[in-house]
Design a protein that fits this description.
11 helices; about 35% helix
C-alpha cells in the first residue's frame, strides 16, 4: 500500500478532523490549510481549521481566508477528533506556543497526520505525507490528495498564492513539477494579477524607508560570503514613529530584493531583536549556495529549520554572542560543503 493510499484510508475512516497550521504564519500554510479543509469537506467530513497565532490582515486578500479561526491548540479539546492534521511544520513546537524545554503533545491524541515538505522534519507523527523535494506544502497537497481538474478559479488562485509565497516567486526550491503545477493553475483561471499585485505592488512609503534603512545597516563579510543586518525593533519604532507590526513589510522587501542580490554573497541573514528574544531569517543564493540553511539551527543547537535556501532559528541571548556562534558554525559548514 503506497503512502498516499494509506493516508486516504485513514482519512476515509475519520469523520471529525482538526487541521492546525504551523507557526510562523505564511502564505503556504494558510493556503494549504484552507484548501485541505475544502477538500475534506467535499468528502463529507466534519472539519475545523485553526491557526495558533493571529493571521496578518493583508493575508485576507487570499480566497476563503477571511475570518479564519485563531485558537490556542493547547486549550482546545484535541481528544474529540478522529484525526488531527499538523500542516506545514516539521516539529511539534511549531503548532503551539510552548516553553523552550517543553513539547506539544497534541492533547494526547495519537492519531496525528503531519503533511510537510521541510528538510528538517522530525517525523513526529503517527502518519505523514512528507517530501523534501516538494517546493511547498501546497505543492505536496496538489500532487497527492487534490484533483486539479476539479478546482474552481478561486481555489486555483489560492494554491497559486501559496506556491508563489513559498518559492519566493519561483526563486527558491522549485522544480519542473513546481512550474508544471503553476501552469495547470493558470489554465484553471488562477488570478495571477491579484497575486502579483499583492506580493510586489502593495508597498507603502514606510516600507521602502525601512528597506533602505536596512541596506545602510547591512554588514558585509566578504571573505565568508555572507551579509547580516540587525533589526532592533525599539530603534526602528523610535526612528520612524511607527507600530511594530508595520516593520515586517520593509524587512520582507529587503529579503526579497536585496539580501542575496550582491555579487559574492551566498547567504544573507536578518537578525530580529526584541529584548532578549532573537530570531534569524536566512536566505541563500539559489545559484551559488551549497550550504543547507535548514541545518544551521541544528549546528547551533537551537530551535529552527526550513528549506535549503530559506530557513530560520530562534533563541534567547545576547546578539553579539549569537553573531560569533553563527560565524563559527558557518566556517565549519563552508568547509563541510566545499562552499567557495
Amino acid at each position: 500500500m503506497s503512502v498516499t493510499k494509506r493516508i486516504q484510508k485513514v482519512i476515509k475512516k475519520s469523520q471529525s478532523i482538526l487541521i492546525i497550521i504551523s507557526r510562523p504564519i505564511d502564505h503556504d500554510c494558510i493556503a494549504s490549510g484552507v484548501i485541505l479543509k475544502r477538500y475534506l469537506r467535499s468528502l463529507g467530513k466534519s472539519v475545523k481549521l485553526i491557526a495558533p497565532v493571529k493571521i496578518p490582515k493583508d493575508y485576507e486578500i487570499m480566497p476563503f481566508v477571511k475570518n479564519m479561526i485563531v485558537e490556542d491548540p493547547k486549550k482546545a479539546n484535541l481528544g474529540i477528533y478522529d484525526l488531527v492534521i499538523a500542516l506545514d511544520g516539521g516539529n511539534k513546537k511549531q503548532f503551539a506556543r510552548v516553553e523552550a524545554n517543553a513539547d506539544f503533545d497534541f492533547g494526547g491524541n495519537k492519531n496525528v497526520l503531519n503533511i510537510d515538505h521541510h528538510l528538517t522534519n522530525s517525523h513526529f507523527a503517527k502518519y505523514e505525507i512528507w517530501d523534501k523535494k516538494a517546493s511547498s506544502t501546497i505543492e505536496l497537497l496538489a500532487s497527492t490528495l487534490l484533483d486539479i481538474a476539479k478546482l474552481t478559479k478561486e481555489e486555483a488562485t489560492l494554491i497559486y498564492f501559496g506556491l508563489v509565497g513559498d518559492t519566493g516567486n519561483f526563486k527558491y526550491s522549485l522544480s519542473k513539477d513546481t512550474l508544471y503545477l503553476a501552469s495547470l493553475l493558470l489554465a484553471k483561471g488562477a488570478d495571477y494579477k491579484t497575486v502579483v499585485k499583492h506580493y510586489f505592488y502593495s508597498n507603502t512609503k514606510l516600507d521602502f524607508q525601512i528597506f533602505t534603512y536596512l541596506i545602510d545597516k547591512t554588514v558585509y563579510k566578504k571573505r565568508l560570503g555572507y551579509t547580516y543586518v540587525i533589526v532592533d525593533y525599539d530603534k526602528i519604532i523610535e526612528k520612524f514613529d511607527c507600530k511594530a507590526g508595520l516593520i515586517k513589510k520593509g524587512i520582507k522587501l529587503y529579503q526579497d530584493y536585496f539580501s542575496c542580490a550582491v555579487n559574492g554573497v551566498n547567504i544573507s541573514v536578518v537578525f530580529r531583536v526584541i529584548g532578549s528574544n532573537i530570531t534569524a531569517s536566512l536566505k541563500g543564493d539559489a545559484l551559488s549556495n551549497k550550504i543547507p540553511l535548514s541545518d544551521i539551527s541544528r549546528h547551533l543547537k537551537v530551535d529552527g529549520g526550513g528549506h535549503f535556501n530559506s530557513a530560520g532559528f530562534a533563541l534567547k541571548g545576547d546578539i553579539q554572542n549569537v553573531l560569533a556562534d553563527f560565524r563559527n558554525v558557518l566556517i565549519k559548514m563552508r568547509k563541510e560543503y566545499k562552499q567557495k
